[in-house]
Amino acid sequence: MPFGSLTMHIIACQLDIHWEDKEANFAAVRAMLGSAxxxxxxxxxxxxxxxxxxxxxxxxxxxxxGGDTDQFVAALAREHKAYVMAGVVGRAADGRGRxxxxxxxxxxxxxxxxxxxxxxxxxxxxxxxxxxxDVQVVDVAAWRLAPFVCYDLRFPEIFRRAAQRGANxxxxxxxWPVARIGHWTTLxxxxxxxxxxxxxxxxxxxxDPHLEYNGRSAIFDPHGxxxxxxxxxxxxxxxxxxxxELEKYRGEYPFLGDLRPEFLRxx
Length: 267
Hints:
This protein has 267 residues and is an alpha/beta fold. It has helices at residues 3-6, 22-33, 58-61, 68-80, 125-128, 156-164, 181-195, 243-252; strands spanning 7-14, 42-45, 83-91, 97-104, 110-115, 138-140, 143-149, 169-173, 198-202, 205-207, 212-214, 218-220, 226-229, 235-242. The protein has a single domain (7-254), classed as Carbon-nitrogen hydrolase (Nitrilase/N-carbamoyl-D-aminoacid amidohydrolase). A 6-stranded mixed β-sheet has the order 5-4-3-2-1-14. A 6-stranded mixed β-sheet has the order 6-7-8-9-12-13, covered by helices on one side. The longest helix is centred in the last third of the chain and has 15 residues, at 181-195.
């Protein structure tokens, strides 16, 4: 099977994010990726709020569509001839921020801009960031990708909605702290098993003024097995995903066909 048909190469950058320092983070991403010329199609993934860290200072971090961070992401896609998914900070109509996952194609054109459905209320994110309205599923080469952000991972119903809409690849970008890292790996595996899909979980490392992060980024196959994983240091997470194998598995074990949609409706 040709690599460019039903396979997807994932390259995820587990960064030690520089606090509210966009230029330093842009430089860190470029250095990490180096002169990589990955085979097509490739999806490069950058963490939640990769350019600034998990900051509640929206006036310092938010950018308009087409701002510096959007431009960096687009240039990265063109340079590496790859799709890129990255966490960016936008602005909501009410003045609060929007914790977004931007996806661009290899030409640097935006193809999706997902807004985090579940801001982290315990950390005060709901005061500073507006909630998103719905899941998104977007075509990335031959794949159907659903983007999610950090705390979204605790809410299986939104992942299930994405699966109902055809998602076979789910990517969750995060700033997930060390105190609850066991939940992170367990929930990533669960989302893969219950939705019979690949799941990419990309976390950051290092510290910010409030929390410590220890990475543990991983890619899980539809059986919940980690096919690639990182520990607590910055680095590249890489794997090749096989859509033909996924479709074969779904065909042999059509668990998703037994869903009861009536139980997914709002109560």
